[in-house]
Amino acid sequence: MSDSANPLSDIKLKEAIMGKKMKKHNSMISTEARDAWLMMAPALIILLIVAVYPIIRSFWLSLHEMILTDPGSGYPFIGLKNYIKIFQDRKAVNSIIFTLKFTITTVSLELLIGFAAALIMNKAFRGKGLVRAAILIPWAIPTTVSALMWKFIYNDQYGLFNDVLYRLGVIDSYKAWLSTSDGSFMALVITDVWKTAPYMALLILAGLQMVSESLYESAKIDGAGVVKRFYYITLPMVKNTVIVALLFRTLDAFRVFDLISVMTGGANKTESIAIYSYKNLMKFLDFGYGSALAVLIFIVVFIISLIYMKVLGDKLTDMEG
Amino acid sequence: MKKLFKQVLVLGLALTMILSLAACSGKTETEKEVNTAEETVTEAAKPSEQVTLRFSFDQGVGEPTQKIVDQFNASQDKIKVETVLLPQDANVVHDDFVNKLATGDTSIDIMGLDVVYIAEFASAGWLADLGQYFDSDVTDTMIKGTVDAATYDGKLVAMPWFTNSSVLFYRKDVIDQLGAAVPTTYKGWMELADKAVGINGIEYGADFQASQSEALVCNWVEYVWNHGGDILDSNGKPVINSAQNVAATTTMKTLVDKYAPEGVTTYSETESEQVFKEGKCLFIRDWSGFWSSGQGEDSKVTGLIGATTLPIGEGGTDPHSCLGGLDLVVNNSISDTQKEAAAEFIRYMVSAETQKNMTLISSQPPVVKDVYKDADILKEIPFYADFFSVIEGGKSRPQSPKYAKVSDAIQRYIHQALTGEIEVQKALDDLQAEVEELSK
After folding, report:
1. With contact defined as beta carbons under 8 Å apart, do B88 and B116 qualify?
2. How far is residue B390 from each of residues A133, B172, B217, measured CA to CA in Å?
3. Are residues B412 and B268 in the same domain?
4. Overall domain count for chain B
5. What is the share, in percent, of chain B residues with pLDDT greater than 70?
6. Does B294 reside within a domain?
């Protein structure tokens, strides 16, 4: 019977079967997606409550004049006036400039040192495991604790920093490093780099370990030198990891707070935008202006992230790819 | 389009996680909710006839205060006081109280509040007027400076609990060796310091706190008062760039440049005390508690310390010290019954007897004058014989609802003047302009 049937109906039949299969496949995808949303729901709801709501609330507060010590004002809505004030406020502008300077300096130093450390750790040598664990220690110490420790290291009477430099003959008498603005900036940068370069190193190390050894071997056979191998193999292969590491560090550095709060308290022109924002909120009880500064930090960090995302292309988020 | 949405979503979520810390004011919001929850619980747990009060203060005075509170609870059965301890960190305590009071929270009835925040809290309308519960015979027993600091806009908004003031501690052994008298002027101390360097390990003539912090404000206002200057005049108008204040700041800068350790502009209490305890300084200006903490086992100057009033400079008449300490304040949002009960408890806390007990177990300087002359106290803390004349001349820092901003401005400009970043005259002119702007 089937043999004698016309070819047209046969195709139709096949199409029908195929269509059914496709439909089944499609509905499976949609069920999967629905399940995924369901399973993520608790996490999303918690995020909405503890993170998104406060941010929206901060934004709302930033549109009001809200100085708690002046309840008579009735906390009126003033639109974007708080934001305009930021750019007329010399202290705010100075703190933004300082924060940018601090971010660029620390992140570039951390990248250099972290990359170098990662390259060293990627080589096979005895005690490699120990070194990898040891390098994490600065990163594992809470920032406040390491800041206090370094504050003592820079002390003008007993500080290790003075002692080392004095013995090396770099300085001829002990100096109060945290009493000048250059000294404070240097001290903060050293401390931050000491603390977070290991983090950078570990992230880059993870990237380096993904690079297949055979690539280097074939390059060697082709006669590529160390520099060429680094430039043409290592760099392109770890580029994405490095950018992710840079993204994290830039965001962190831009929001620097505890390190500065402990070491200088914002003295000697080292007031970061996060410290200035905290001061306005909790010290001056100016919730409107303080919130505007907090929102500004959020926006700047968002822009920084977007730039990195652009460089990174789709790779961070594109799951199908 | 879908991909873009997904990207933004992922980025947004990642950022919100990272940034939840940046949103400081947001954190306040969540804390508020927790607090209201607490409040309903305590409200429900209250027995009907007994009034329960919640008293919040920092851990620094935790143990002795708990003992006193227990004694109060045992002494009567109408009021029961529960304690809520906070960490020993002035900022944390301040922020905690602000979070609660700003939302009209009533979970806390009585607070131990640092004297510098009285004006700020009072201007926000958070503090109950205690004038209706206490007449002047209670406050008359107290050191005048502490009562002044508890008064805002003519109203008694706080009750002094215990006080503190700075003292000039000096090396007795060095002065004896030089056969000199204890100087009473800055000039006298400088001349003495010139001779003292090298004797018994002395390297520095002076030691105090000049890091950009509240401690710097305390130090600086003392130079100002002791040179006959002031920060605000009697009408609350800033008088910062006066000739006396320029002289005062110049004296301070001379001490920083020529007599103090190089890092003095980075010193808060701990660092300055360390150098003095090492035996390197002729004198240190520090809080009264250093009399005992400076002569502990880790100190090289135990038994070698004398205490005196702060020196005066040109134009100064009487030496003044900066007052610190805690006041008892009542939350303005609680009911009248609660307020009355709170006043009853405060009356107990500031009675001469309780103050004496508290002093004996906490070694915090009391606010009631008679306690300093009490025989038991003098036997236990002989230092109080010298200390009373210092604290009697104590003055409180300028009172302003915008004190936090005034203090911040003082810290920035004076610190810059001391580190030589700007000239003294210019620093004071700029400071004057900024405080004028704030007073508008």
Report:
1. no
2. 56, 18, 19
3. yes
4. 2
5. 89
6. yes
- For residue B163, what are the β-bridge partners? B325
Across the interface, whether the CB atoms of A282 and B98 are under 8 A apart is answered yes
Is position B44 within any domain? no
B431 assigned to some structural domain:
yes
Residue A130: count of CB within 10 angstroms of its CB: 9
Q: Do B15 and A301 touch (CB under 8 A)?
A: yes
Give mean pLDDT, residues B396-406: 89
Q: Are residues B134 and B187 in the same domain?
A: no
Same domain, B106 and B64: yes
A 31-50 residues inside an 8 A Cβ radius of B: 47, 50
Of B17, B124, B419, the CB nearest to A68: B124
State mean pLDDT over A27-51.
89
**Domain map of chain A by residue range?**
3-62, 89-320
Closest CA to B392 of B366, B354, B361, B355: B366
Q: How far apart are CA A138 and CA A120, in angstroms?
A: 18
- Say if residue A68's pLDDT is above 90: no
Domain boundary among B366, B390, B414: B390
Nearest-by-CA chain A residue for B270: A152
Q: What is the pLDDT of residue B235?
A: 83
Joined tokens for residue B412: 């920035």
Which residue in B289, B350, B320, B363 sits closest to B225, CA to CA?
B320
Same domain for B179 and B310? Answer: yes
- What are the structure tokens assigned to B369, written together? 């004058």
Q: Write down the residue that tokens 């040192």 correspond to.
A: A113
Q: Give the residue-averaged pLDDT of A153-167.
A: 92
Residue corresponding to tokens 């004694």: B71
**Contact: B7, A176; criterion CB under 8 Å:** no
CA distance A186 to chain B (A): 15
Task: Judge whether B408 is closer than 8 Å to chain A, CB to CB.
Answer: yes
What would the two tokens of residue B259 be? 């007599």
Residues of chain B neighbouring A294 (CB-CB closer than 8 A) = 22-25
Mark whether B361 and B433 lie in a shared domain.
no
Alpha-carbon distance of B426 to B423, in angstroms, equals 5
Residue B43 has pLDDT above 50, yes or no: no
pLDDT of residue B20: 45
Residues 56 to 95 of A: which have CB under 8 A from any B CB?
A: 57-58, 61, 68-71
* B147 and B68 share one domain: yes
B284 domain residue, yes or no: yes
Q: Domain range for residue B403?
A: 165-322+397-438
Q: Are residues B331 and B402 in the same domain?
A: no
Burial status of residue A39 (CB atoms within 10 A of its CB: 0-12, 13-18, 19 or more): exposed
d(CA B66, CA B82): 9
- Alpha carbon distance B347, B132 (integer Å): 13
Helix (H) or strand (E) holding B327: strand B323-330
**What is the ipTM for the molecules in this complex?**
0.80
Multiple choice CATH, A89-320, 3.40.50.2300, 1.10.3720.10, 2.40.10.220, 1.25.40.10: 1.10.3720.10
Pairwise CB contact (< 8 Å): B271 & A284: no
Is the domain of B296 the same as that of B409? yes
pLDDT of residue B3: 60
CATH number at residue B304: 3.40.190.10
**pLDDT band (50, 70, 90) for residue A125:** confident
Instruction: Look at residues B390, B407, B422 and tell me which one is the last residue of a structural domain.
Output: B390
Q: Does A285 touch chain B (CB under 8 A)?
A: yes
Higher-pLDDT residue of A225, A292: A292
- In the predicted structure, residue B207 carries a pLDDT above the cut 90: yes
CA distance A252 to A254: 5
* Residue A156 contacts B, CB cutoff 8 Å: yes
